[in-house]
Amino acid sequence: MTDPQIVLTERVQQALARAFGPEHADADPLIRPSQFADFQANVAMSLAKRLRRSPREVAESIAAELSDFPGTIEVSGPGFLNLTLDNAWIESEARRMHADPRLGVGTSTPPQTIVIDYSAPNAAKEMHVGHLRTTIVGDSLARMHEHLGNKVIRQNHLGDWGTPFGMLIEHLLDIGEAAAVEQLEAGQGTEFYQAARAKFDGDETFKTRARARVSTLQSGDPETLRLWHVFMDATVRFFNKVYAMLGVTLTDADIAGESMYNPMLQRTCDDLEAAGTAVISEGALCVFPPGFTGSDDKPLPLIIRKSDGGYGYATTDMAAIRYRVHDLKADRILYVVGNEQALHFQMVFAAAKQAGWLPDTTSAEHVRIGMMLGKDGRRFKTRSGESVKLMDLLQEAVDRAAKLIEDRGHDEATQREIAHAVGMAAVKYADLSVSHDSEYVFDFDRMVAMTGNTGPYMQYATTRIHSIFRGAGISPADATAPIVLAAPAERALGLHLLGFGELVSQVAADSEPHRLCAFLFQTASLLSTFYEECPVIKEGVDPEIRDQRLALCALTLRVLETGLDLLGVPVLQRM
């Protein structure tokens, strides 16, 4: 089956070539959904000036070349082409889609290796709301690329190395390993860090010990590394609780923290300096990628090694790019990181190209993540001004969802299961339905609503279809009658569903999960209209029509459940 918009684009382009010459074959037909027809092509308006003809005359010439169009064509107004597809064509494509296990979603040819850098919490502190969007968006992109047949390599670039670990290890020794592990596994990493920091700032003896511990850590002292592992293992176990609650696909095998690149940093500096890509400037080793200047119009440096000999984020990120290109054989590298890092990544990518480490055959892309805001329009924080712990936020979502469904007659275990799924759907879908580079206001009341473009509403759409099948006494998999789209609501739903396969490919190509959310929300809205206008199992419905509508319900259910699964949003059979 084929996306109708793609079919129409190809047909109109062929008509343009026949009417005006092959040089116009690649013109954008400007096909958009229309309230006057299924679609409208506006290309005549843009092409008329070049052809020195009136738009209506151009439109009529195009229409004359569309004799094989599977529907009707009308030239309207000053030169719009209104395109209405035949029901028979839509039904044929819908039936093909219903028979296709992949629902028209293609596979990448050839498959690519996609490295996705996402989540990346700082092990020195607990995960907070700032990590929510990078984790959710990155995981949805990983799911989509795997569905398209690409090889996805997840990279959880933990902040697990550097000077803070001197004081963290010393604090661990002070309170004892068992107490430290218990605190870190309980998600009190921020409190652990604050206690260590207070001692570092107020106790000179502790500060001396902490600084010495940094040296032994960086030199690879076995006992210090053992203590570092005790700290990290406990911290990662808590991270995994958060990931499990969110239902994201990250595992311990995906951890590629700063510590992993530490052995590569000296060579990174040496190779860049030997190649002349990096030079000493004011005592620091710097790359000056072309096109970047500061407020004083002087070239902006990417500092690879600080003047005191220390390394920074740029050093690690340069080592990571080389590793991901050379060792992981990446075709695409997606960095799902906050908007505020935009300049840093632009310079890192430019420096890597300058060094020859990022060839034209590999693309490096910053998937920018906008800030989460509170209702006051400021960065989302607690009333005391601190970062909101991610686990606390997720638990509140579950608690609110539990109240939403508490009077629905479920047993306690089912109630907990549904509340968890609804809570996670509310949080994840609210995030994914907004363009990832936009700021958005975190509002629980809106997120858990059963109406509007929300996760719970999308779950309700799937449970409504499952309810129809329970009433019919058959499984969705058994609804195999030919799809017939006689009523307007049936036709609108069937036509819309045909765009699913192409949309998934485009969403993955452009890293725009919000477009899949918009498609699924429109699906659910069209389903609601269909549900109201086209009875399926109501008494008196002709059995043949009943079976045809059940088949359309089954196709809609598969699109909704597949789409939500690609987003990482849990689906339900009952609410």
TrEMBL record:
A Pfam entry, by short name: DALR_1
Domain DALR anticodon binding: residue ranges: 458-575
Compartment list: Cytoplasm
Reactions catalysed according to its record: tRNA(Arg) + L-arginine + ATP = L-arginyl-tRNA(Arg) + AMP + diphosphate
Superkingdom of this protein's organism: Bacteria
Keyword Aminoacyl-tRNA synthetase: yes
Keyword Ligase set for record: yes
InterPro entries: aa-tRNA-synth_I_CS, Arg-tRNA-ligase, Arg-tRNA-synth_N, Arg-tRNA-synth_N_sf, ArgRS_core, DALR_anticod-bd, Rossmann-like_a/b/a_fold, tRNAsynth_Ia_anticodon-bd
EC number annotated for this UniProt entry: 6.1.1.19
Molecular function (Gene Ontology), one example: ligase activity
Keyword field: Aminoacyl-tRNA synthetase, ATP-binding, Cytoplasm, Ligase, Nucleotide-binding, Protein biosynthesis
Arginyl tRNA synthetase N-terminal domain boundaries: 6-85
CDD domains: Anticodon_Ia_Arg, ArgRS_core
NCBIfam families: argS
PANTHER family according to UniProt: ARGININE--TRNA LIGASE, CYTOPLASMIC, ARGINYL-TRNA SYNTHETASE
The name this protein goes by in its record: Arginine--tRNA ligase
Originating organism: Nonomuraea monospora
Gene name, Swiss-Prot/TrEMBL: argS
